[in-house]
Amino acid sequence: MSEATINTTELGEKIVRVLKTIYDPEIPVDIYELGLIYDVFVNEDHEVKILMTLTTPNCPVAETLPVEVEEKVKTIDEVKDAMVEITFDPPWSQDLMSEEAKLELGLL
Fold first, then answer.
1. What contacts 49, CB < 8 A, 6 or more positions away?
2. Inside any domain, residue 55
3. In a domain? residue 57
4. Is 57 buried (19+), middle (13-18) or exposed (0-12) by CB count in 10 A?
């Protein structure tokens, strides 16, 4: 493995740790465990693209949550730039939540 590959993997893990500090204000579970993060892309220049969704298209945090995700990811030293893309394909459902999140919300 080249140094760049290791760094991208490590950076991906750091990004996930940051995402786990961001919570949906209506649900006491972080957005990663909630299944709102569909994918995290990191290129060799350490530019990050996050593909995420919201619980509903009319989500009250539709304006602020993606901005919070971008800003928090940009605080990681190695990240050169970050952008969030919102998608509703596939639409979010409780099936996307981790077991931990379902337990937390009493769904198991």
1. 40, 41, 82, 83, 84, 85
2. yes
3. yes
4. exposed
Indicate the number of domains in the chain: 1
Domain presence at residue 108: no
Print the domain residue range for 18: 3-92
User: What is the pLDDT tens value at each position of the chain, 108 positions in all?
Assistant: 455 555 788 899 999 999 999 998 888 899 999 999 999 999 989 999 999 999 988 888 888 999 999 999 999 999 999 999 999 999 999 999 999 999 989 998
What CATH number is attached to the domain comprising 65? 3.30.300.130
Residue tagged 């996307």 (tokens): 96
The reported pTM is 0.89
52 beta partners: 37, 86
Token pair for 42: 């990191």
